[in-house]
Write a structure and sequence with these properties.
Elements (H helix, E strand, L loop, with lengths): L4 E4 L4 H4 L6 E4 L4 H13 L2 H19 L1 H19 L1
Length: 85
């Protein structure tokens, strides 16, 4: 969707969101950190938010494409089967 993100700084989210590059991360269970991130996002221009969103989409396409993930998954299964032999 090419939208800028605000996410919690935890594994998984941290893999997708790169602080300041394609979104903002905030501390777990910290409503003040979330409010600051929201205010930071609101204070950006529409062009800045659009740019961050495009960078986020590019990051996801390059690293989390279904074909790429499936290929890596199948390679891991093949390697595990090979080790069992």
């Amino acid at each position: 969707m090419a939208k800028p993100l605000i996410a919690t700084d935890v594994p998984g989210c941290r893999d997708v969101v790169r602080q300041g590059e394609n979104g903002l991360l905030c501390a777990v269970r910290d409503s003040n950190a979330l409010a600051r991130a929201m205010m930071q996002m609101i204070s950006m221009t529409e062009a800045e938010r659009a740019h961050i969103g495009r960078r986020g989409r590019a990051h996801v396409e390059a690293n989390f494409d279904q074909r790429l993930v499936s290929e890596l998954y199948l390679a891991a299964i093949a390697a595990a089967l090979e080790r069992r032999r």
